[in-house]
Amino acid sequence: MKRILVNSFVIAMLAALLVTGAALAQDKYPSKPVSGIVPASAGGSTDLMSRALEKVWPKYSPQPLVVVNKPGGAGVVATEFVVRSKPDGYTLYLGYGSGHDIVMPHLQKMPYDPYKDLIPIARVSVHSVVVVTGAKSEFNSLPGMIAWAKKENKPITTSVSMKAGAQDITITAIAKAAGVNIVTVPFAGGADAVTALAGGHVMLGAGHPSEVAPHIKAGRFKPLAIALPERDPSMPDIPTLKEQGINVSTWGSVKGVGAPAGTPKEVVEYLEATLRKICEDPEFKKTMADLNQPVMYLNGADFAKFLQEAHADYGKLIKDLNITIQ
What we know:
By secondary structure, this protein is an alpha/beta fold. Helices cover 42% and strands 20% of the residues. It has 2 domains: 35-127 and 252-320, D-Maltodextrin-Binding Protein, domain 2 (3-Layer(aba) Sandwich), CATH 3.40.190.150; 130-244, D-Maltodextrin-Binding Protein, domain 2. The termini are far apart. The relative contact order is 0.18.
């Protein structure tokens, strides 16, 4: 009887160890595809960057990254979806640091805290804001268009990717600094905003290099200005706003990756290391260069500091220019 009891105990322990081992093996991250949520429509700069990540991701992870576009609410819909998701590393926010993260909180109450409810994993890129006009426009410079608006006392209509985003704030800052009326028309993403300008529905447009460069090369757009402190190395022939006497410069649009607060440390570290490898990958670098998107990797800790600095700087710009949401 004693021998039977001992044998039964050993068998039970072995069974328990086998089940535990199988569960641990099954639960090892990542054990299923990872969803990357993009807060804009397909074809915009964030989407293009995300597709580049998606393509190279399988080289460095056993499970794929699947890009999911969730436009709406000026980016808030997608970000809130990520914030409310299970913090297990399987739902990521692609484009962390966009306007609704570092700009919009200065202008309106948000349904979440973009700094407390999200964990910065890595910065991938920073996209400048390029101001353009249609090829058939009578204006060849932004000062020329501004002079016309003042003389004729007429508004300048402009397409932007979303309300209160980096492009919208840049255009609003130009209007304030130049003393003219510029009416921004927000869309569901950069691709839609660019399409509106290409169709002649607005006088002016603001987009990121990957969104406007193909149209500039095809002769559909005329570039007017870059809204950075210095010229963008991906488009070095375009002068800055300050070079043209318009005292405005911005951080551009930050593009990083985030996860819901509460995501396990080991998962965050895995994702951070994976993104570092991707940002060092020659194929990824070439794709990003072809998109006119500079690779500007920062690890999670440095990215968090960068976000806070950019957020504070946009807050000062908004306060100094008395910018509000109409």
